[in-house]
Structure formats: C-alpha cells, structure tokens
Automatic annotation (TrEMBL):
GO terms for cellular component: membrane. This is Putative sugar transferase. It comes from Thiomonas delicata (Thiomonas cuprina). Belongs to the bacterial sugar transferase family. Residues 280-463 form the Bacterial sugar transferase domain. Gene3D superfamilies: NAD(P)-binding Rossmann-like Domain. NCBIfam families: EPS_sugtrans, EpsB_2.
Length: 469
C-alpha cells in the first residue's frame, strides 16, 4: 500500500496506472507518427513528432480520468476482460467530443484531429491486448501479493479473512491464523492453516515471509495477545494492524463492531484547518457554478416534467441536519406525491416506494432530484461532497441506536458522498449503520483528492444507474 494525500492506494493499482499512462502516451505518439508517415511529409498542417507530446498528454490524461470514473481500478468491478473492454470503450466514447474540439483547436485541423483520434483509439485497444493484459496478469501473481497473518481464529478473524478474499483482489493473501490466548481453536473451517501458539511468532513470520499482521481479537486483556512477540515483529519492520485500521484500508470504511474510541482519539485523520476549509469552499463554489451553467437545461426539463405530471410544486423543501447538528432547508426536485406524508410521520424511502411518481422515479435514479442542492452549496449550507444530510427525526433515532453517529456532523453534508458511490441506498437502521461506516471513513480521511474521486465515481453511478432508489 502507498499512502497519497491520506488515501491508501495498492501498489498494484499504482503500477496499473503507470502502465495505462505509458500505453496511452504510446498510442497517441504512434498515431501522430502514422499520420506523418502517411502524409510523406507533404502536409504542413501536421505537427512534427516532438510537438505531439503535448496532445498525447491531453489524450492520456483525459483517458485516465475516464478510466477512474468508470471504475477500471476498482478491484470489485473489473475482474474480467469483458468488463475492462466495456470501461475502455466507454472512455473512448466520452472522450471523443472534448478531444476532437480541443485537439482540433490547438494542434491540428479538425480533419486531422479526427484521424489522429481514430488511430490513437486503435493503438489504445492494441496496447490493452498486447501490454496491459499481460502485465495485469503478472500483477495478479503472488509476486505482488502481500502475505497476511491473522492473530485470532474466532468470528472476527474469519470475517476479516473473508473480507480479504472478497475485496483484496490478489493484493493480499491470508497465509494463516495464530490463535490468541483466549482461543483453543476456531469457530469453524478456516481458509488457511491454524498455527500452533507454541510456535514463536517471529520465527513463524520469518519462515512464511509474512508481510503484515492483523490483530483480529476484540478482547485483548489478560494475556490474550503475545504482546512481546508482536513488538519484536514490529521492530523487525513487519506492520501490525488493528482490525479497524486494516478494514479501513481494505474496504474504505470504518467498522463499527470492532471500533474503539481510543483508536479514533489517538489514530491519524480528522484533519481540519483554515487552509483546508478555504480550499474546499472555493472548490465547492467553482464546481457548483460550473454544474449549474452546464446542467440548467436538464433542470428546466425536470421542472417542466414534474409540473406537467400532477400540477404540484416543483421544489421540495425539507429540514435536514447539517454541520455541527444545525438544521437547514434542503432543496430537491419533488419526486413523491404531494400527500406522501399527509399524517406528518417521517418514513424511510423504500425501494419501489409507491409514493414516488413516474417522473420522480426517473429523476431519483439519475440523481437529477439532487441538483437544486447546488444552491445549498452556494449558500454554504452543504458541500459538493460529504455525508448525506438526514432529517432531524431520523438523526435522533440513529444517534441513540448507532454509536459514533454524531461524528458525521463534524463536516458539511454533501450532494454526493463516499457512502453514495460505495453502497446502495439505505432505507433501514441496519443499512444506516453500514452507511455510517463509509461516512466515518470520509470524515476521517477527507481531502480534495478524495472529493475529486467521489465526484468522478458519482458520474459512473449516474450513468450505470447504480444504487437506484
């Protein structure tokens, strides 16, 4: 794992990014060279080869952004050639128009720009098959996997092992389990060997070439942990992680069941400050204004459709809880019937909720109903990215039932958020607990880089209709 701006990025992902950048740069340069060869030097409108490095960087940069947007580097999304090719094809489709006008305006005549892009896309696909896929196969080999030893063999240890197998995508490999002092065996079948506690931990780590140790033991008092041996391993350079810390890195969420207040207090994260606040506010202003300028036709069509369907109000104002627990009026396009809560009782929105109108179903699925909140962003009541604001009645219930729920109010609520791009729409107490784990991760690790990642992934969620409500 490599830590960049408080975000843990797997080494394999960094290698994939570098590989893709080289492939894309090579595709663009080869495209320009091919055009020059075909013209046989008789076309003065074509740039010379050294000048093509700049359009190549534009080409590679935009394609990489679209790769991130469509989830090329998410282990749980791209697990086959078919899905990878779909993502690459989508990046080509969505980059065609902006690259055509950009390159045609700055470097080539528009006719040459179209030929340049056509050849670049061809070489891009060729590079995917000849360079990207073979290297991806090499990255999946055990040479790039990190061996994990889990201390503990109970239910927490088994859940952690399952999470590694399901989410790590070959980044980690569970080598075995080392029982704690309170465990005589395992609660069920284990996916890796259970070592004897009689073995010295440092010798075990050296023999099996363990790269990291995860302590999956909730009760750590009374000699449950081999503390001296763990310290020896740590001194030798082997990282030792708590269950919460490793889960945070692995899944991008903070697990509530194994969370301790001491880890939140003494651990890293929760960075605030005047500079960070100012940068985020300027970022919110600029992007919100840009989105309003681009999306106002969509908002106008949505408003007309809502009014034509039932003649009711277009904008729905609802009290929500924001920064430091202060209430504000959140704006949305109305997606439910006007009598949806005629008895005055707040209810969770459910999948296939009968209160949702036909227009409302579409604008909720495409997230168009959230666009009026850009005005909340301009007013400073919300941010573009942050935990989604909840209603006061729901906040009261969740604060009483879910530990650490109030922490999410230490940052401004957002139009979109980490939970919205990583988890489906929550409509119950149990789903609210799971969403909080993602919200805690965001509050603990929020940065401008993470905000940009969430905005890009929101585009994918809208395009593919993920987490439809």
């Amino acid at each position: 794992m490599i830590r960049v701006f408080d975000q843990y990025i797997p080494t394999r992902t960094v290698l994939e990014l570098l590989t893709d950048f080289v492939v894309l740069m090579l595709a663009a340069v080869l495209s320009a060279v091919t055009l020059m060869v075909l013209s046989q030097g008789n076309d003065p409108d074509l740039a010379v080869v050294p000048v093509t490095l700049l359009p190549a960087m534009f080409f590679a940069g935009l394609q990489l952004l679209l790769y991130v947007t469509f989830g090329v580097y998410q282990r749980d999304r791209v697990g086959s050639l078919r899905v990878l090719l779909i993502c690459v094809t989508l990046s080509m489709v969505f980059s065609l128009a902006p690259l055509y006008f950009l390159l045609g305006g700055l470097f080539f005549h528009h006719g040459h720009a179209l030929r340049f892009l056509g050849l670049a896309y061809f070489y891009q696909l060729l590079g995917v098959f000849l360079i990207r896929l073979p290297l991806l196969g090499a990255y999946k080999s055990r040479f790039w996997s990190r061996n994990i030893l889990i201390v503990g063999s109970g239910s927490d240890a088994q859940i952690q092992a399952s999470d590694i197998i399901d989410h790590a995508g070959g980044i980690y490999r569970v080598t075995g389990f080392y029982p704690s002092g309170h465990e005589s065996g395992s609660a069920g079948p284990l996916p890796a060997p259970l070592f004897s506690r009689d073995l010295a931990l440092d010798a075990l780590v050296a023999h099996h070439r363990i790269d990291e140790i995860v302590v999956a033991v909730r009760e750590q008092r009374g000699g449950a942990l081999p503390l001296r041996q763990l310290l020896d391993c740590r001194i030798l350079g082997v990282p030792v992680h708590s269950l919460a810390a490793f889960s945070e890195r692995l899944k991008g969420e903070v697990p509530l069941d194994s969370l301790k207040a001491s880890w939140l207090i003494f651990g890293e994260g929760f960075s605030q400050g005047v500079l960070r606040t100012v940068i985020k506010r300027v970022f919110d202003w600029v992007v919100a204004l840009a989105l309003l300028l681009v999306l106002w036709p969509v908002m106008l069509l949505a408003a007309l459709a809502i009014r034509l369907e039932d003649g009711g109000p277009i904008i729905f104002r609802q009290e929500r809880v924001g920064l430091y627990g202060k209430s504000f009026w959140c704006l949305k396009f109305r997606s439910m019937r006007t009598d949806a809560e005629k008895d005055g009782v707040a209810r969770w929105a459910q999948a296939n909720d009968s209160r949702i109108t036909r227009v409302g179903r579409f604008i909720r699925k495409t997230r168009i109903d959230e666009l009026p909140q850009l005005f909340n962003v301009l007013k400073g009541e919300m941010s573009l990215v942050g935990p989604r604001p909840e209603r006061p009645s729901f906040v009261a219930q969740l604060t009483a039932a879910v530990p650490y729920y109030a922490i999410r109010h230490s940052v401004k609520p957002g139009v979109t958020g980490w939970a919205q791009v990583r988890f489906s729409y929550g409509a119950s107490l149990s789903e609210a607990r799971r969403k909080l784990q993602f919200d805690l991760y965001y509050v603990k690790n929020h940065s401008l880089i993470l905000d940009l990642q969430i905005i890009l992934e929101t585009v994918r969620v809208v395009i593919f209709g993920e987490g439809a409500r």
